[in-house]
Amino acid sequence: MEKTLKKYFLVFTLPTLVAFAFAFIIPFVQGIYLSFCNFTTVSNAKWVGLENYKKAFGSSQGFISAFGFTAGFTVISIITINIIAFSLALLLTRKIKGTNLFRTVFFMPNLIGGIVLGYTWQQMINAILYSYGKTIVSDAKFGFIGLVLLMNWQMVGYMMIIYIAGLQNVPTDLLEAAHIDGATGWQTLIKVKLPMVMSSITICVFLTLSNSFKLFDQNKALTNGAPMNKTQMLALNIYETFYGKTGFEGVGQAKAVMFFAAVAVIALIQLSFTRSKEVEQ
Amino acid sequence: MTSKKKKTTDAVIFVCLLVFALIVLYPLFFILNNSFKGKFFISSDPFSFPNAETFSGFSNYVNGLTKTGLLSAAGWSFFITIVSVALIILFTSMTAYYITRVKSKITSALYYMFVFSMIVPFQMVMFTMSSLADKFQLKNPLGMCILYLGFGAGLSVFMFSGFVKSIPLEIEEAAMIDGCNPLQTYFGVVFPILKPTAITVAILNAMWIWNDFLLPYLVIGVSTKYKTIPVVIQMLVGSNGNKDMGALMAMLVLSIVPIIIFYLTCQKYIIEGVVAGAVKG
User: How far is B130 from chain A (nearest CA, A)?
Assistant: First the structure.
């Protein structure tokens, strides 16, 4: 059967491969090459070696401060989102009435796109700050807190759904055994439930990590980096380097390559985590 | 005694969840409420209900729609999302079937390339991809659909391959013996079995394509008539300083309504889909 199918290579794969080449393979290879070049369009590139990479770390480039902001935001988001989501999942697996309705409501914000969401929160936060004569861009603190709130609002329901699925898979005889042995609710949670949902925790931590680290739309809509680029995250910093002013396309591309490398490292760590879990089971 | 205690605890939890649900829903209520106020009352009095003085009927909606062309943007958003998802389902499932069933160095290299593309952030390819799209006349809705086929291919091929592996070969062999060629076997036998995965893949792709901002913003741009909803919302606020907040509120409401309708009608599939996508991706 494989032999007959083999002749149909182009029939089965051609459209996907052409689109994949246009959207990914060619731009990716070109992108790596151009990060070592000086250019304003793809066709006028001149090889400059590592110069773009050196320039990217210059203080006027804001790449390092964007990295700091992104890292801080990512850590706070991972902690808050996962704690809130896990707590909600615990409350929603107690079989109290209204569970389905609550689940529906909590998950809903996840479907709304970053731009629409960002402006919704910008309007609301500005309305709150209005009585103090301030806006979300008067202080980088406001932007940071706003982004964390927004990210929680969007991601908590999503993570909660994954935790609920994990908690429902904890075998009931295990919980009964703990109950008979006289374990308190807290002991059951720490000693039985938490170890049993470790794989859900890994998934959720890495999902929040990569979503927060790569955040763009919400950042652009909520503060667009203001004030003075202090609330600019990495993705927005790269975007501004490309399109904010001409002459820095090469630097932007070098930053993008480093950004990609960081995301790839995160993905590899995640992979090794999941692999080691699989061996244990 | 204990059942009475459980009842009180449940009541307390119910109240907590209810309060949290109201907090989650509040931002949506906030924009809905303010979309019915005159634009000068939104900043001075953002939290009260509209009253006789501040109520402005549907004027924000009329105003916003004429100013932004949101209706046409909604049309293009629908068109691009539906056509892209259809192309993705049809072509990536065929590709996944081929590279799973035919074992060779080329197919396994392709598989790893698709998986690899999932971790590459968009910033890495955005500049080179937009110039490629420019060169090959892809700056139109159909071109966008081809690009989305390429961008969606990674996750979709990955998910379809996972499912194809679990289908027993005997079914296809029986079809082959009955005289079907590979295409007939695929569409007659395999594709119907893939339906649950196809629903998941369709939902995951529809969600990000509908909400995607940067790709249409860079490829189609702001000066054509093919703008999508996120692009129009961004332009409404954009660089222009004295923005019409009433119109913005109304347009945000109109952008969110289709998503909520979609969510409430296909909730079961959406939640199952994102969980499956999270666990596999």
Answer: 9
Dihedral angle of Cα B208, B209, B212, B215, to the nearest 10 degrees: 130
Residue B90 lies in a domain: yes
Residue B147 lies in a domain: yes
Residues B124 and B168 both lie in one domain: yes
How far does B73 lie from chain A, in Å, by closest CA? 14
- Look at B102 and A94 and tell me if their CB atoms are within 8 Å: no
Using DSSP's 3-state secondary structure scheme, residue B37 falls into strand
Given a cut of 50, is residue A177 above it in pLDDT?
A: yes
CB spacing of B214 vs A239 below 8 angstroms: yes
Q: Are A196 and A230 in contact (CB under 8 A)?
A: no
Task: Check whether residue B73 and residue B141 sit in a common domain.
Answer: yes
A98, A217, A242 member nearest B127 (Cβ)? A242
Name the phi and psi angles at A46, rounded to 5: -125, 130
Looking up residue B222, the CATH number of its domain turns out to be: 1.10.3720.10
Amino acid, res. A280: E
- Distance from the Cα of B214 to chain A's closest Cα (Å) equals 8
Residue B257 belongs to some domain of the structure: no
By residue range, what is the domain housing residue B183? 69-238
Q: Does B275 touch chain A (CB under 8 A)?
A: yes
Question: pTM value?
Answer: 0.92
A and B: number of Cβ contacts within 8 A: 269
Residue ranges, chain B, pLDDT below 70: 1-2, 238-242, 280-281
